[in-house]
Amino acid sequence: MDLDESFSSESSVDSDEELQEAFAAGKLRPGLNLELPASSKTINNTAGLNQTLLTIKKNLPWLERLDVTSKPATTHKDLISQSETDVHDDFKRELRFYCQAQATVLEAIPRLHSMSIPTKRPEDFFAQMAKSDDHMKRVREKLVEKQTAIERSEKAKKLRELRKYGKKVQIEVIQKRQKEKKEMLDAVKKYRKGQKDKLDFLENLPGEKKNSQNKKSADNLRPNKKREFKNKKFGFGGQKKRSKMNTKSSALDMSEFNPNINQKKPGKTGKGKPKPGNKNKRPGKARRQKAKSRKK
């Protein structure tokens, strides 16, 4: 057993014995506390206090001591008179201290002014700071760094919220499309089974713009003249090969035949005028080669 444990056990035994002796003597009353006799009277040793004061007292000028003894200010005389009757009231006692401090200031300030001692700091007063400029610079840099980190975290938080909102909207759009697709497929199935007579659901397809301003008329959807000419010349969809070959129906179709234009008479142009003769007509290639061989 340690020394501390033995001491605590002995003290507990002594306390129990004391309680038993007090109970046997009739000093204990119902309750948990032991009633002790009243303390001795306080002795006001005025002579001893004055003697101690003389030993610690120093003859210094008033400017070094700045001690002022005064009565409470007269502006709160009514409140002070009430507080004098009740010294145990904490609020009134603190109010008396306040009034006395106010009276002391009213007495000490004029006294300092009479000694030409300033009591206020001038407006252009510059005092040396407790911390150096280098230290304050580091403090400012630390504050700026902290503020930047806070702004960066706030910005990242907003971006995360926007991403969450964007994903939420995207999920809602996908779910809406899936729902519309499912409804359309169900309607098609009902139409195939004969439960529906009309395909009215095709008029309101998903993704169709219902705004009248965004709808274009058939005239606006037509291509321009240049596009029409190119479509007519090069074809627009359909079969490209053998597109100009005659068929039985096209060969028998004489609706576009004009004899005045398409049927030419000998010696005349298409407009009925005589064709001018070409006297200096160039001979053919074979005849030119024969003429060259003869000359050699």
Description:
The protein is an all-alpha fold. 56% of the residues lie in helices and 0% in strands. The chain has 11 helices and no strands. It has helices at 3-25, 46-56, 62-65, 77-84, 90-114, 133-193, 218-221, 225-234, 248-252, 259-262, 285-295. Helix 4 (77-84) packs across helix 5. The model is unreliable at 1-11 (pLDDT under 50).
Return residue spans where pLDDT drops below 50 for at least 5 consecutive residues: 1-11
Q: Return the string of H and E elements.
A: HHHHHHHHHHH
In terms of DSSP E residues, the strand content is under 5%
Helix/strand/pairing category: mainly alpha
Largest sheet: none
Q: What is the 3D shape? A: elongated
What's the end-to-end separation, in Å?
Answer: 152 Å
Task: Report mean pLDDT, rounded to a whole number.
Answer: 77
Count of helix runs: 11
Got a strand count? Answer: 0
Q: From the alpha carbons, calculate the radius of gyration and give it in angstroms.
A: 61 Å
- Estimate the helix proportion, in percent: 55-70%
Describe the structure concisely for a colleague.
This protein is mainly α. The protein is built from eleven helices and no strands.
Attribute tags:
single chain; mainly alpha; about 300 residues
Which SSEs are present, and which pair or pack?
Elements: H1 3-25, H2 46-56, H3 62-65, H4 77-84, H5 90-114, H6 133-193, H7 218-221, H8 225-234, H9 248-252, H10 259-262, H11 285-295
